[in-house]
Design a protein that fits this description.
The chain has 3 helices and 7 strands, in the order αββββαβββα. With 175 residues, it is of the alpha+beta class. A 5-stranded antiparallel sheet has the order 4-3-7-6-5. A hairpin with a 2-residue loop joins strand 6 and strand 7. Helix 1 runs antiparallel to helix 3. The longest helix is centred in the last third of the chain and has 48 residues.
Length: 175
């Protein structure tokens, strides 16, 4: 039972870590796609950046803001103020927690003829991903006692059944 407990804990931790990495990588890929979508609707006229209309990202849980070359906000969707006030970090994906909700944030430079004219910051809420991981944690670790009990009862049943002839022989020998 202790060996099985150890194996189950190691296996469940492995499953959780792999699933977590896959889901977070998927969100990073979606963030890149959201950034591409924002870039596809940006138009520039000199240092002035504007959107083709309408300027909404189709993906849910995605928000963006455009900064000009000096770092001032020029255009934004309904982005969290805490995300809006973050310093610009070129080509860096960041994870942060705001009001108990995890977010992924990335800044990408807007270049025209190799000159940076602004920045796009795209953020995604990881609320759904974190809920999935929480449910997975509960399922994986609540199931461990069930498997231990099942294995213990199964082992007891098989051992008693296997030892029954020996018990009969011992009983007959005593008589």
């Amino acid at each position: 039972a202790l060996l099985l407990l150890f194996i189950l804990v190691v296996f469940n931790v492995f499953i959780y870590m792999v699933t977590s990495r896959i889901l977070l990588k998927n969100n990073e890929d979606l963030l890149v796609e959201d950034t591409r979508q924002v870039f596809s609707i940006i138009q520039s006229e000199g240092d002035l950046l504007r959107f083709e209309t309408p300027y909404k990202i189709i993906a849910t849980n995605s928000y963006f803001v455009i900064f000009d070359s000096s770092g001032k906000t020029s255009l934004a969707s309904d982005i969290q103020p805490e995300i809006l006030s973050l310093p610009i970090e070129k080509d860096q994906t960041r994870y942060l927690t705001i009001n108990n909700t995890r977010w992924i944030v990335a800044d990408t430079a807007i270049k025209i003829e190799d000159e940076i004219v602004g920045w796009v910051r795209v953020s995604r809420s990881l609320e759904f991903t974190m809920a999935v991981l929480k449910n997975l944690r509960i399922i994986l670790f609540v199931s461990i006692p069930f498997y231990i009990l099942l294995a213990s009862f199964g082992g007891f049943f098989l051992a008693s059944r296997a030892l029954r002839p020996i018990d009969r022989i011992t009983k007959i020998a005593k008589e």
